[in-house]
Fold this sequence. Notes:
CATH class of one domain: Alpha Beta
Number of helices: 9
Amino acid sequence: MERLKVVSLFCGCGGMDLGLTGGFSYLGNYYGRSIFDIVFAVDNDPYCTKIYNRNFEHGCQVKDVKDLHIDALPELDVLIGGFPCQSFSISAQNPPRLGYKDDRGMLFFEMVKILKNKQPRFFIAENVKGLLSANGGKAFPMILEQFRGAGYHVTYKLLNAADYGVPQKRERVIIMGFRNIDDFSAFSFPEKLSYTIPLRNVVDADADKNSKWFFSDKAVAGMMLVRDKMNKGRAQNLDEPCNTISSHLAKVSLNSTDPVLMVDGRYRRFTPREAARIQSFPDDFDLDDVSDIRKYRAIGNAVPPVLMWQIANSFQSSVFGKGIDNHAMADICPSFKIKKNKETVQLSLFNMG
């Protein structure tokens, strides 16, 4: 089977890239190596790229996408990236046009510019659910039209990571672009799994013994005064996937809407490693080169690797006729619980297919 060369924009710490390429283990499953190879990666955050370069042999450049010399990019089959969406605006013209409020909004157009210039066979774009409703729902159709204008047949779907083997309720828009109509017609998004993974599978009991992760009595007292009317202090149900985590975990407080844990009547925050597990990063994904604040920001902004792997697997299977090999690995985790058909059951990895 042919291998596909990938250029990754806005790569962050590498969640999308890890999931696309595969070759990692998570919660007892081995997510096999795909047909995708990253040949170039770029992000403008030096802390994210520091984490990235600790974990990927090919490395990535610290650079603003606007400063790339497109002609100097390597040959590619696939362009991937999660472009910022906060800054789109609709210009009051006839017909109306997609514009931007500040420099972040320009980055989408840089992605389109590369597509027009390099004409890779495919592209994959990822974004938050809010992209669908941006600017009163007017921005997203124009974004799709920009992609189509670059020469691509485009499809998209809103996916919840909890439906695909990630212990987190995280909804993201996945946009797929195909230069060839046959590829477009063959592609299908992944089917939902028959189970969800509960949060308890990824929490660290040792963290319960460390006071640094617990909120102070003063913080708890302040939250209790407003909890009923402000829906704060969102302690998570360990038997369900976690609510969405974000980069806000770097400064999470009990007066925020970020998820927290309740341990023996006390509130505590997630550790950076727990946050990484909630995002489906493997435990051997190295975070040690940056501060805890930078870890939270990098992990909270990432694409869950297991979600991206499921997309890559469906892509490879539907377009190229052969999915990615994966299997349970008993030597990684002896047993764990999954929530299946609304019931939590204990499974031994020796019996998993």
